[in-house]
Specification:
With about 270 residues, the chain is of the alpha/beta class. About 40% of the residues lie in helices and about 25% in strands. It contains ten helices and eight strands. α6 runs antiparallel to α10. The structure holds S-adenosylmethionine.
Length: about 270
């Protein structure tokens, strides 16, 4: 298991404020389950749930949804949220889930499984899933793009400089590519019924500051901020100013479209 920088309350709060809720991917998961497995859908477990943005999206489809996370700060934030009555949270490692064998209809991890001890987590997910239950892992690449009028290409170039400056602060546990981590996990899953989607683009209109805020929640940015807070702030301000100048705008509240490139895999336990 990697050291994961999600303990601080400020980080947890920023996470809740800026991360994008992946409604479209929840629809993919439910579509897959409808096709592959019998109802009723009683229990969904969202592992590494963070502040619960993805967890609550599952509530309409399951009798009970439990978000689990190792970080008390993230869970405190999740609990302070307005949660549907069938959603609850538990603190535990992803590799030791507090559920009986065969109890879960769905185990999911959204932008979290790369931090886990991946083989132990896959074994644990297999233990708690019922036969016919589904596993859904999703995440996204950090190279989000921006769209704004006819300067989208220029904005994306500026964003790439931002990501390149953060690259040296990427946790070595994650290796060069998160996509590869998930593909390796996918390949190691022995369920015959499984599918992999390498790029699913999710578009969201956000204030420019919301985009900067999202990048600031990345673990690489958090690492830089811990090491050199002034440099982290300079980098954010510099990027914001370059983007505004290319857009011909003055307010960081100007709306841009952020394109987040998700990848995911789905599998059904035989
Ligand atoms: C990038 S956040 C994703 C949060 C949420 N799923 C979302 O999509 O917004 C990763 C989360 O995984 C949690 N995490 C990391 N390693 C973990 C582990 N071994 N067991 C349980 N949770 C873990 C972190 O505390 C953090 O809340």
């Amino acid at each position: 298991m990697a050291e994961c920088l999600y303990e601080g309350k400020e980080h947890a709060a920023a996470y809740l404020k800026y991360r994008v809720a992946p409604h479209e991917l929840i629809a993919k998961i439910l579509g897959y389950m409808e096709e592959k497995t019998a109802k009723p859908f009683k229990l969904a477990v969202d592992v590494g749930c963070g502040s619960g943005q993805g967890t609550t999206l599952l509530a309409p489809y399951f009798t009970q949804v439990v978000g689990t996370d190792i970080s008390p700060a993230q869970l405190e934030m999740a609990q302070a949220n307005s949660n549907p009555p069938n959603v609850s949270y538990r603190q535990c490692p992803a590799e030791e889930l507090p559920f009986a064998a065969g109890e879960a209809d769905l185990v999911t991890a959204m932008t979290a499984a790369h931090w886990f001890d991946r083989q132990r987590f896959l074994q644990e997910a297999d233990r708690v899933l019922r036969p016919g239950g589904c596993l859904a892992l999703l995440s996204y690449t950090l190279d989000m793009e921006l769209e704004y009028g006819d300067v989208s290409g220029t904005l994306t170039d500026i964003c790439e400089e931002f990501y390149a400056a953060l690259l040296p602060f990427r946790n070595p546990y994650l290796g060069p590519s998160s996509t590869l981590i998930y593909k390796d996990m996918f390949d190691s899953c022995l369920y015959p019924d499984k599918e992999w989607d390498e790029c699913f683009r999710l578009r969201r209109s956000l204030p420019l500051n919301g985009y900067i805020g999202m990048v600031e929640t990345f673990s690489s940015y958090q690492k830089l901020q811990k090491k050199d807070p002034a440099e982290a702030e300079r980098l954010s301000n510099n990027t914001r100013n370059k983007l505004l100048s290319a857009m011909g705008a003055s307010s960081p509240d100007t709306e841009v479209v952020v394109v987040v490139k998700y990848f995911y895999w789905l599998a059904c336990k035989p």
